[in-house]
Design a protein that fits this description.
The protein has helices at 14-25, 49-56, 73-87, 111-137, 165-184, 203-211, 233-244; strands spanning 5-9, 29-34, 63-67, 92-95, 146-150, 191-197, 255-258. Helix 4 (111-137) links the parallel strand 4 and strand 5 (146-150). Strands 3-2-1-4-5-6-7 form a seven-stranded parallel beta sheet, with helices on both faces. The protein has 264 residues and is an alpha/beta fold.
Length: 264
């Protein structure tokens, strides 16, 4: 059986890293992509090159670490080219790169912070799709390509409480992109879906807790129907891996909610 190949962005930590681990342990070849550089407009540190190397280290040549910025279309085109050259093609692309900021009402958010939320979290998904879809379509018929984006419970029917309006808007935009992309891919055999995580134990959730002045991220568990601790990245990654698999052949244009029954 031919090894399936994926590109994963936001791969150095959190949900993106968990996706790399899940796919690699299942026999996928993966190009793990992260910017590995801080953004001065954001209130928390980004992952480092050491974080990315730690993610890929267990898998040897099966996982290729690449430092690249999802805001740069040419960089993502080069990433996809590396996947095709090194591993022979592309079968899935997972858009996991995103950032979080807020803490003030929408009308007070600095323009640079707004730009970071949309440039990374929305344009980054768009850039990955533009780079990856042609490679997914190069696979012979019948195809089983997958494009999966990480959205959020923030893209639910109502906005999150308190000042995260622009983050909510960015995640709604991700869902819109996925639904439009699925329509564009109609009949090709390549499917597009999103996963909407709830409160998941990541550095971004730490940043969210700081915005809400919470003493612990565990306080977010009160917004889940499951009456259990907050989610672990591996739980979200399992859903992403399923969407990348042949088992998801009837799912496209959909949002899979992995949020513990988020109630806002």
């Amino acid at each position: 059986m031919t090894t399936r190949v994926a590109v994963v962005t936001g791969a150095a930590r959190g949900i993106g890293a968990a996706v790399v681990h899940d796919l690699a342990k299942s026999g996928w070849a993966v190009v793990a992509v992260d910017v590995c550089a801080n953004n001065p407009t954001l209130p928390y540190a980004m992952a480092s090159r050491d974080d990315l190397e730690e993610v890929v280290e267990p898998y040897g040549d099966a996982v290729l670490p690449v430092v690249a910025d999802v805001r740069d279309p040419q960089a993502l085109a080069a990433v996809v080219s590396q996947a095709v050259t090194r591993f022979g093609g592309l079968d899935a692309a997972v858009a996991g790169a995103a950032v979080l900021a807020g803490g003030v009402p929408m009308w007070e958010l600095p323009d640079a912070t707004y730009d970071a939320l949309f440039d990374v979290g929305v344009r980054g998904v768009h850039n990955l799709a533009r780079a990856a879809i042609p490679a997914l379509l190069e696979r012979p018929v019948p195809r089983s390509g997958r494009f999966v984006a990480i959205a959020s419970a923030a893209a639910s029917e109502r906005g999150l409480w308190h000042p995260l309006a622009t983050y909510c808007a960015a995640k709604h935009a991700v869902v819109g992109l996925i639904r439009g992309l699925a329509a564009d891919l109609r009949g090709t055999g390549v499917l597009a879906s999103a996963v909407a995580p709830g409160s998941t134990r990541t550095d971004m959730l730490d940043a969210t807790a700081a915005i809400y002045h919470l003493g612990s991220v565990e306080e977010f568990a009160a917004h889940q129907l499951t009456d259990r601790p907050i989610l672990e990245p591996a739980e979200v990654a399992a859903a992403v891996a399923w969407l990348c698999s042949p088992a998801s052949s009837a799912v496209t244009g959909s949002v899979l909610h992995v949020d513990g029954g988020f109630i806002g």
